[in-house]
Design brief:
Layout lengths: L1 E4 L5 H25 L4 H13 L2 H26 L7 H16 L7 H30 L3 H20 L35 H18 L1 H11 L1 H6 L4 H28 L10 H11 L4 H25 L4 H22 E4 L2
Antiparallel strand pairs: 1-2
Helix pairs in contact: 1-2, 1-13, 2-3, 2-12, 3-7, 3-10, 3-11, 3-12, 4-5, 4-6, 4-10, 4-11, 5-6, 5-10, 7-8, 7-10, 7-12, 8-10, 11-12, 11-13, 12-13
């Protein structure tokens, strides 16, 4: 048996296999619910109710989706050009660190001027973190999967050092955390009294901008060409190295904005537990979205809804919240298989 590429997959194949992947995910979830001694439809109903059953639940789901939109977009942009960015976690922490450095009193400006400057600086910090592996890839041929993954651990250790040293909150009572942002450096709430902030709106704008770049610009065409076939793109005169470096700057900048939105919009300070794996989950979000920018928004809300709903379901049904992790992991594996079967068919040798 061998895999044979499909030149132009039909609509039924393009939509059918991803739909089967979603059904397979829910089938696995039903089996896990039964193994936990619960009724599957009741578990799924409670997850749905916890994620979207009230105004508070919907806003909390969107709030949880906000950093996933940024990290999902970061991964989608990089993967489209076959730049395997596994380091969105490091880029997120870089953006969060700069947000704290500038937003705790270093710049005493009004919010209208301060917030754009901090957002731009956070994006730049994330971009520079990914630029290093991109340069190593293009100049020395170093595998960016390894370097971006290692940067996650390096950055977390660096943040931990800063929180025990120059960024440590003197009023933190021993807990490793930074000082809190000044009010002018905080993103306002979309709905007063609830946690959803304008970082979510910024994420939607970012998705629209990425879509425009990918579909309406020569840069987007070049990124797709490099991703499809680097050698052919180079032969056609596309400056492959420059395209990869620009892709790295855009991807890292988006992940840096995830750190900015999480600190300025929600947490208010920096800790080593700021991200429970948003960078890694962004890979799942991007794959579920088939690397489409607007699909990333939908996938981020879907994944966030599973996690938020699972928290509520666990309290009501006594089923462990780990079912959410299993659902998301199964969705990723099933979607990767669906993508493979969409683009290739099995042939007897």
């Amino acid at each position: 048996m061998r895999l044979e590429p499909i030149a132009a997959p039909g609509l039924a194949r393009t939509l059918g296999f991803p739909a089967l992947a979603i059904l397979a995910t829910f089938a696995v979830g039903a089996g896990l619910a039964l193994a936990a001694g619960a009724e599957p439809f009741s578990v799924f109903g409670l997850i749905l109710q916890g994620a979207a059953g009230s105004r508070f639940a919907i806003l909390e789901t969107l709030n949880r989706a906000t950093p996933l939109i940024f990290t999902g977009l970061a991964v989608a942009v990089a993967f489209r050009a076959r730049l395997w960015n596994i380091g969105a976690e490091a880029q997120l922490y870089a953006g969060a660190t700069i947000t704290v450095v500038l937003g705790t009193g270093l710049l005493l400006w009004p919010a209208a001027a301060l917030l754009p400057v901090i957002a731009a600086a956070a994006a730049l910090a994330g971009a520079l973190v990914l630029l290093v592996p991109a340069l190593l890839k293009t100049k020395l041929g170093v595998d960016e999967v390894v370097t971006t993954l290692l940067f996650n651990f390096v950055m977390l250790l660096f943040v931990s050092m800063l929180l025990e040293g120059p960024l440590k909150d003197p009023m933190g009572m021993g807990w490793p955390q930074s000082a809190r942002l000044i009010p002018e450096a905080r993103l306002p709430r979309i709905v007063e009294g609830l946690r959803l902030h304008w970082g979510f709106g910024l994420g939607l704008i970012a998705a629209a901008v990425v879509w425009v770049i990918q579909t309406r610009t020569t840069l987007g065409y070049a990124m797709r060409a490099v991703g499809e076939n680097r050698q052919a793109a180079e032969f056609a005169g596309i400056p492959v190295t420059r395209v990869i470096l620009i892709t790295a700057l855009i991807s890292g900048g988006l992940a840096g904005l995830a750190g900015f939105s999480e600190v300025a919009g929600l947490r208010g300070n920096l800790t080593t537990t700021l991200s429970p794996g948003f960078g890694y989950t962004g890979i799942i979000v991007a794959m579920l979205a088939l690397l489409h920018p607007f699909g990333v928004v939908a996938a981020a809300v879907f994944v966030a809804g599973i996690f938020v709903g699972a928290d509520s379901m666990s309290r009501a049904a006594g089923v462990p919240t780990y079912i959410a992790d299993m659902l998301v992991a199964t969705a990723l594996l099933a979607m990767v298989l669906a993508i493979l079967l969409t683009r290739f068919r099995l042939r007897r040798s």
